[in-house]
Automatic annotation (TrEMBL):
Source species of the chain: Orthonyx spaldingii
Any one of the GO BP annotations: GPI anchor biosynthetic process
Name assigned to this protein: Metallophosphoesterase 1
PANTHER family with a match to the protein in the record: METALLO PHOSPHOESTERASE RELATED (PTHR13315), METALLOPHOSPHOESTERASE 1 (PTHR13315:SF0)
Gene: Mppe1
Cofactor(s) of this protein: Mn(2+)
Taxon lineage: Eukaryota, Metazoa, Chordata, Craniata, Vertebrata
GO cellular component terms attached to this protein's record: endomembrane system; endoplasmic reticulum-Golgi intermediate compartment membrane
GO molecular function: metal ion binding; phosphoric diester hydrolase activity
Length: 398
């Protein structure tokens, strides 16, 4: 009996240490699970699909059938083998994968558009590196059968105009089924895909082919809308398309002087807003911009490239939305656009992802608390309760 009691006393410190260690493991695991998994659900769950004007007069079934729900994001910049550190790649790709998969699960969009610069080193990657980048992209941005994914080409995917080759363009087109001047029509809504890198206007082979396709598509769309300046003779043999005014999807924004007029928490930093944009590098040239506006008279333009948000009105009536980068490598507060679109109207809403600074703050606070708990457990740090109790007992003794 005495031997059993002695064993229990000896084992008590060990059991306490194991219990404390288990509590620490649970604490650390909880912080990791929240910061690396649950936080994406908490943040994205707060996003709501915008309501299209006139939708309130229809039943929920009619609205869901006629409204196309689209997610638009840009500039994922998957790091390559040359400039991408393995730890940076691991962190950024995990963040984007969790955000994308969580958004698909919670929001269930009909279609997702990625507006270029999918890769960071597509402009110079070898065939093996390209295949590896594509494999990782498909893992990160996998999607269920009801959802459609459409990817637009950007300068980091095929290079700036002086780096662009037919080989790089064909390589991208083969993987993503993308061609400049391609029309995608869903629920009576026309989307025009533009290779904005090829809008150089210098007559290069890729540029000429791209512009020819855009001109032909413009003719079809204008004939379908029965524009008064098109005679029946010119449009008699043209394939009729839905009469909806098109939405342009491209990587480069149309020409604007700078981001000086852009506002919002995810617009460019104040020190960058007044830096003039360089034509054919930061934005399309004035000539190329006028061509696209004249050819299509779009009701909406969606672009990326600048990594910051901006809203611009062209010709006083055509809105262009520059979509910020989807990668935390480019900004602390990435976001994507949620669009409810019909053949005659649209409504857009921004959905922010978790702020990386807040995640870092949670980790720092958890780390500090962990250190305090460990020090208190090994009695290197007196817990506040015992410190106060000691002061009270001393006061009574006096």
């Amino acid at each position: 009996m005495l031997s059993s009691s002695s064993t229990t006393v000896k084992n008590l410190p060990l059991k306490r240490r194991l219990c404390f260690l288990l509590k620490l493991v649970c604490f650390v695991s909880s912080v990791l699970i929240f910061c690396e998994f649950l936080i994406y659900y908490v943040v994205i769950f707060q996003c709501r699909w915008p309501v299209v004007k006139g939708g309130a007069h229809k039943s929920e079934k009619e609205t869901s059938a006629s409204v196309l729900r689209a997610i638009i994001l840009a500039d994922t910049h998957l790091l390559g083998e040359i400039k991408g550190h393995w730890l940076d790649k691991l962190r950024r790709e995990w963040q984007m994968e969790r955000s994308f998969q969580t958004a698909l699960w919670l929001l269930q969009p009909d279609i997702v558009f990625i507006l270029g610069d999918v890769f960071d080193e597509g402009k110079w990657s070898s065939p093996q590196a390209w295949a590896d980048d594509v494999r990782r992209f498909r893992k990160m941005f996998k999607y269920p059968v009801p959802t459609e994914l459409v990817v637009i080409v950007g300068n980091h995917d095929i290079g700036f105009h002086y780096e662009m080759t037919t080989y790089k363009v064909n390589r991208f087109e083969k993987v993503f089924n993308f061609t400049s001047g391609k029309l995608i029509t869903r629920k009576g809504i026309n989307f025009v895909l533009v290779n904005s890198v090829a809008m150089e206007g210098d007559g290069c082979a890729v540029c000429s082919t791209s512009e020819a396709k855009l001109v032909a598509l413009s003719h079809k769309l204008n004939c379908s809308q029965q524009k008064p300046n098109h005679s029946n003779k010119r449009c008699s043999d043209v394939e009729k398309l839905p009469a909806s005014e098109p939405i342009l999807l491209q990587h480069y924004p149309l020409y604007r002087k700078s981001d000086a007029e852009c506002t919002g928490e995810d617009s460019a930093p104040p020190e960058e807003k007044n830096i003039p944009f360089k034509e054919k590098y930061d934005v399309l040239s004035q000539e190329a911009s006028q061509k696209l506006l004249w050819w299509f008279q779009p009701r909406l333009i969606l672009s990326g490239h600048t990594h910051s948000a901006c809203e611009v009105l062209h010709e006083g009536k055509i809105p262009e939305i520059s979509v910020p980068s989807f990668s935390w490598r480019n900004r602390n507060n990435p976001s994507f656009i949620m669009g409810s679109i019909t053949p005659t109207d649209f409504s857009l809403q921004k959905c922010f992802l978790p702020f990386e600074s807040r995640v870092f703050t949670i980790y720092c606070a958890a780390g500090a608390l962990l250190v305090i708990l460990v020090l208190a457990h090994v009695q290197l740090l007196t817990p506040p309760f015992y410190f106060a109790q000691r002061l009270i007992s001393k006061h009574k003794a006096v």
